[in-house]
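hey m, so remember when u said the tokens were messed up on ur end? i reran from scratch. heres the input so u can diff it against urs
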Amino acid sequence: MANSNTQIDPMHAEEIGHGNSIAAWTLVGVSLIGFIIGGIAFAGHNPTMVYVGCGVVVLGLIAGWVMKKAGFGVGGARSGSAN
């Protein structure tokens, strides 16, 4: 028998946000370019460009992290979504 005294968990009542920020979109955009470069190079049997694509993905991670620290992340001072 189901419990009729159910409560909403306060943890799930908060809006998640899903990282929708300038920093997150920069990370995704740069990483996507890196994956495209690496994928095309892999299909074309060009190992040097595969490594370049991997490097672009790493640069995307670094750029996203730097932008988050600069205030462009979720809730950051420069993101336009600060509380």
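this time it looks ok to me. Helices lie at 10-13, 22-43, 47-72. if urs says something different then somethings off w ur setup not the seq
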